[in-house]
Write a structure and sequence with these properties.
Layout lengths: L7 H4 L4 H20 L11 E4 L4 E4 L7 E9 L2 E8 L3 E2 L4 E2 L6 E4 L6 H12 L13 H30 L8 H22 L5 H4 L1 H21 L7 H30 L5 H27 L5 H21 L8 H14 L5 H7 L13 E3 L3 H4 L3 H7 L8 E6 L4 E6 L5 H32 L10 H28 L22
Pfam families: RUS6_N, UVB_sens_C, UVB_sens_prot
Family: Belongs to the RUS1 family.
InterPro entries: RUS6_N, RUS_fam, UVB_sens_C, UVB_sens_RUS_dom
Length: 510
């Protein structure tokens, strides 16, 4: 069946009026294009994310039919939002078409410095830095990164040494024996980690001291691992001892991490601070590992290399701990604050108090001049010395005395003692120690003036009683101002941070 086509004259021929109209419109459009300003330059790979097209489309879609309505910047990258300029007419106004927004991102190549800053913002510093953390965050993270760098570098050499000692690289041991030795080594480390966890609350109030002790144990463990190269037949006992030391150090690092990060966080961003801190450590560890792999290919001296890396690790660890600024007063910082107050009348700032803190006064040390909450038998060997000072503290919930034979100040607590009583007793003990030291110095200077080479005499009971009475008067006048000035400097005092003993006096003999 043949279809009938319309005649060519009817379908293809334009009337004269239509021809003139087409020519006129063509000339008008050409004139507009010639007089229009050039479009702004865009990058060659500028792309458009269009919800209508479901992906990225090329920049030819951005033409005169689109209108710029908003600009945006996120993580250093700028976006422009366009809307379809072919508006829909309504009875009252013109509106843009629905779902006509185009998001344009300029993918210009970033400068190296800009790329580095973008990486730091995303992976190294918390959001809102530097306003979201304290000023101590930067030096702490700097030294932390250096410590992990040296630690990662040492890990390559110690692991290589362990493998050589156990016989893996030289095929001197059966695979079963190698696996058994390695499992026993790891098992011993886990046992040590479990036993050290009994330190409990010491991780809260002496965290700087335990942190530096843990890092020193990590270094000791690495040294013992290196020693297996000299005596490979002692691999199992040495590797077990090294792994115990390193796992104890790992427990210390993990347990003290959260309080330290908490001290840096200004708001509810402890999770962000922790994540970025761990990322810094991992990046530095990877860099150190990569460097040590390149060094190990040249077969350097293990002793020399380990000594240099150990010095860097210990120095970085010390500076890392010293850069931490805590607001709480543990025993070490409490001692710094009270001694400064008694000498100058002012309480040190948070930065000063933390910098003067002795981080090597470990909590298990028995050589401490002040003992809080001791047993009665440790504080008093002579009943007369107790009966002499007991009336002075009749209105207090503690008793402070000095034992000249041991050279210690003892602060005993009554069973009614509360938090403020324990803090006051600790302050009283420091005041009494200050009075005794001042008396001893005066005695020594007077003996030098008299040019007598006589031995120092221990204070008598009457001397001790006089010192205790003098200290009681000073505490009554100074304890309140000390608390106020400490609070003004931002210090937080709590008796639990002083780690007092559990002994309490229940019945006092009259």
């Amino acid at each position: 069946m043949k279809l009938k086509h319309p005649s060519n004259s009817a379908s293809q021929t334009l009337t004269s009026s239509e021809t003139r109209l087409l020519v006129r419109e063509t000339l008008r459009i050409s004139a507009n294009l010639a007089s229009a300003p050039p479009p702004p330059a865009v990058s060659e790979r500028e792309l458009i994310r269009d919800s209508n097209f479901g992906g990225l489309v090329e920049d030819q879609f951005v033409d005169s039919s689109f209108r710029l309505i908003c600009c945006e910047e996120i993580d250093g990258q700028r976006w422009k939002y366009f809307a379809d300029n072919n508006s829909v007419k309504t009875s009252s106004s013109k509106k843009f078409k629905n779902n006509s927004i185009r998001a344009v991102s300029s993918h210009d190549p970033q400068a190296p410095f800009d790329g580095l800053m973008s990486f730091i913002r995303l992976y190294v510093v918390p959001e809102g830095f530097p306003d979201s953390v304290t000023p101590a965050y930067v030096p702490y993270m700097t030294w932390r990164a250096l410590k992990h760098f040296f630690g990662g570098a040492m890990g390559v050499f110690t692991t290589q040494t362990l493998l050589n000692s156990v016989g893996v690289s030289r095929n001197q041991a059966a695979p079963g024996a190698v696996a058994l030795n390695w499992i026993l080594k790891d098992g011993a480390g886990r046992v040590g980690k479990m036993l050290f966890a009994r330190q409990g609350k010491k991780f809260d109030y002496d965290l700087k001291q335990l942190r530096i002790a843990g890092d020193l144990l990590m270094e000791l463990g690495a040294g013992v691992e290196l020693a297996t190269a000299a005596v490979p037949h002692l691999f199992l006992p040495l590797a077990c001892a090294a792994n115990v030391a390193k796992n104890v150090g790992a427990v210390t690092s993990t347990s003290t991490r959260t309080p330290i990060y908490k001290a840096f966080a200004k708001g509810e961003n402890i999770g962000d601070v922790t994540a970025k801190g761990e990322c810094v450590g991992n990046i530095a560890d990877l860099l150190g590992t990569g460097l040590s792999i390149m060094i190990a290919k040249r077969n350097p001296s293990l002793v020399t290399t380990f000594a240099l890396l150990s010095c860097g690790y210990v120095m970085s660890s010390y500076q890392e701990v010293k850069s931490v600024v805590l607001h709480t007063l543990n025993r070490a910082r409490f001692t710094v604050a009270v001694e400064s107050f008694l000498k100058s009348g002012r309480v040190p700032t948070l930065q000063e108090g933390n910098s003067m803190e002795n981080i090597f006064s470990f909590p298990w040390s028995k050589h401490r001049p002040i003992v809080l909450g001791p047993r009665f038998k440790d504080a008093f060997q002579d009943p007369n010395s107790y009966l002499a000072v007991e009336p002075i503290f009749e209105k207090e919930r503690y008793i402070v005395s000095y034992n000249p034979s041991r050279g210690n100040i003892y602060a005993l607590f009554k069973d009614q003692a509360k938090s403020d009583d324990i803090l006051k007793a600790a302050f009283h003990a420091h005041v009494l120690l200050h009075i005794i030291h001042t008396s001893n110095q005066n005695q020594c200077s007077s003996r030098r003036q008299q040019e007598h080479d006589l031995p120092m005499l221990l204070p008598t009971s009457s001397d001790i009683q006089a010192h205790v009475a003098e200290s009681y008067k000073m505490v009554s006048a100074l304890y309140g101002p000390f608390k106020n000035k400490a609070k003004e400097q931002g210090w937080v005092m709590s008796e639990s941070l002083l780690n007092p003993g559990r002994a309490r006096l229940c019945q006092l003999v009259k």
